[in-house]
Amino acid sequence: MNPHFRSRYRLLCGAAILSLTCSLATAETPEDPWEGYNRAMFSFNSGLDSVLLKPIAKGYEKIVPNPVQRGVGNFFSNLGELGNLTNNLLQGKPDGVATSFFRFVINSTAGWGAFRYCH
Question: InterPro entries given for it (predicted)?
Fold first, then answer.
């Protein structure tokens, strides 16, 4: 394992443990018994975003060309159609199930076909 990655992983684990212990130390109020935990997690997530996730996102935007970014976005958008399909299935909406299913199949085959022939 990369030593740089290992040190970031340890830092991340340490921050998570620290945030959980801080949340246990804060007083609970009757209105919101989870307030201490929520504040600690918000602080941890905000720090993680500024230290790790934002630099990765900026590097991704700078390095990866726009057509590839659009393709990755389309890929994950198409995966979201599986959630729509499941939701329609659980709600007993056969028309919605069929629409989501065919939308997923057509986007997947047309998307892969377009991706293969662009090279």
Answer: MlaA
Q: Give residue 119's pLDDT.
A: 47
Answer whether 35's CB lies under 8 Å from 28's CB: yes
* Cα torsion 95, 87, 74, 107: sign: negative
How far apart are alpha carbons 42 and 38 in whole angstroms?
Answer: 6
Residue found under tokens 């929520």? 38
| Contact present, 85 and 104 (Cβ < 8 Å) | yes
Instruction: Give the residues of the chain that fall short of pLDDT 50.
Output: 119
Predicted local distance difference test score (pLDDT) of residue 105: 93
What's the total number of domains in the chain? 2
Enter the pTM of the model.
Answer: 0.56
Which residues, including other chains, have CB under 8 Å from residue 26's CB and lie 6 or more apart? 35, 36, 39, 40
Q: Considering 26, 44, 63, which residue would you say is the last residue of a domain?
A: 63
- Nearest residue to 81 via CA among 61, 102, 54: 102
Pairwise CA distance, residues 14 & 98, whole Å: 47
